[in-house]
Write a structure and sequence with these properties.
With 102 residues, the chain is an alpha+beta fold. The protein has a single domain, classed as Alpha-Beta Plaits (2-Layer Sandwich), CATH 3.30.70. The chain contains 3 helices and 6 strands. The protein has a 4-stranded antiparallel sheet with strand order 2-5-1-6. A two-stranded antiparallel ribbon has the order 3-4. A hairpin with a 2-residue loop joins strand 3 and strand 4. Helix 1 runs antiparallel to helix 3 and helix 2 packs across helix 3. It is globular.
């Protein structure tokens, strides 16, 4: 499996971010081909040292890194990426991981 992790920095208006994210962005992102599972964090994002500089973390699961790359290159992936600029003004860090169960 492989994961695309989106770590959204704390927005100025959390309520507006949450409303847009859930009502608009999630439905767009769920159309990305090859997406197997979509999960998001609930509540504050914390580290062992305290609150992290992130408002929300999304973890999208695909069959492989190649599947993530194909998904991002698709029209649906391009629409999802373009949508980030409409609500993630504080910034978002994106990570791609190849994973295995141990």
């Amino acid at each position: 499996m492989a994961k695309l992790i989106a770590m959204y920095k704390i927005p100025t208006d959390k309520a507006a971010f949450d409303l847009y994210y859930h009502s608009t962005h999630v439905p767009i992102a769920k159309k990305v081909p090859g997406l197997r599972h979509y999960e998001i964090s609930r509540g504050p994002v914390v580290t062992l040292d305290g609150v992290a500089p992130y408002h929300l973390v999304a973890i999208l699961t695909f069959d492989s890194v190649t599947a993530i790359q194909a998904a991002l290159a698709s029209p649906e992936g391009q629409a999802t990426a373009a949508d980030l600029g409409r609500f993630a003004m504080a910034g978002v860090d994106l990570y791609i991981l190849d994973t295995t169960t141990v």
